[in-house]
Design brief:
By secondary structure, this protein is of the alpha/beta class. Helix content is about 40%, strand content about 10%. The chain has nine helices and six strands, in the order H-H-E-E-H-H-E-H-E-H-H-E-E-H-H. About 15% of the residues have low confidence.
């Protein structure tokens, strides 16, 4: 990604950037804090050999799963939702983002991460060279809890099979968990995000690399934490690049 374009994305996110004194012909490594140096832009390979292309059974699986979610009445949230929020994005993405639960905007529009938090997430992705439509985005909960309260353990448990099936269908190379509710449910822990970020976990039997970062809605309330979220994003970008290079070395996609 062009360094000046990246600088603009970071500025829009609210992450402070510095320019070297005396100006200069253009952005250099001095434009970013040492802890926020950027990896090279990602180049995404073709889908892995043997991975079922959409338009066949995989597409039918997605359609059936979405219909099940939209009609779900497994918990009381079906009585208060406007609509269930299934997920959005590239169904064969290398990066899958798992959030918490739909808010008012998501409940109204039927899509995760819209509104101010969604716009910030888009900027965060753009800062590592990704568009929203190049990742897959889903939530722990498919229906909005009244008043945006935290999901109850029972609600999260009843929704869990839907998310696990989405992960199974996407087969992401990396999962990014955003927010406390997401991280605590995926990792079966009570630890706060601040203790979980900065390290890698393994998700499920396939041991998918999973990283944790702050939720965009939290970053809007606590902009001083945006620099830490930027570090998390760079770690994800490096991991994707490492996995891509490893797959290329073996002579096939992913």
């Amino acid at each position: 990604m062009d360094p000046e374009l990246r600088r603009r994305y970071l500025h829009a996110m609210g992450v402070q950037v510095w320019r070297p004194r005396g100006g200069g012909a253009g952005p250099t490594r001095g434009d970013l804090p040492t802890s926020a140096q950027v990896t090279t832009p990602l180049q995404y390979p073709a889908p892995e050999a043997g991975r079922e292309p959409l338009g066949t059974t995989a597409e039918k699986d997605w359609e059936a799963l979405k219909a099940e979610v939209l009609g779900c009445r497994a918990c009381g949230l079906c009585e208060t939702r406007t609509q269930a929020v299934f997920g959005v994005g590239d169904q064969q993405a290398d990066l899958m983002i798992v959030g918490e639960a739909p808010g008012a905007d998501e409940d109204r529009e039927g899509e995760p991460f819209v509104g101010r938090a969604g716009r910030l997430l888009n900027l965060m992705l753009a800062a590592i060279g990704l568009r929203r439509d190049q990742v897959y985005i889903a939530n722990i909960l498919k229906c909005r809890p009244p008043g945006n309260r935290d999901p109850s353990p029972e609600e999260a448990l009843r929704c869990e099979p839907y998310l696990l099936r989405q992960i199974e269908l996407v087969r992401p190379a990396v999962v990014l968990s955003v927010g406390r509710i997401s991280a605590q449910n995926l990792l079966r822990t009570g630890s706060p995000v601040g203790r979980l970020r900065g390290q890698w976990f393994e998700l499920g039997a396939d041991k998918i690399p999973l990283a944790v970062t702050y939720h965009p809605a939290y970053l809007l309330r606590s902009p001083d934490q945006k620099a830490l979220a930027w570090q998390d994003l760079q770690r994800v970008a490096r991991k994707l690049s490492e996995l891509q290079n490893s797959a290329a070395g073996r002579g096939h996609g992913r």
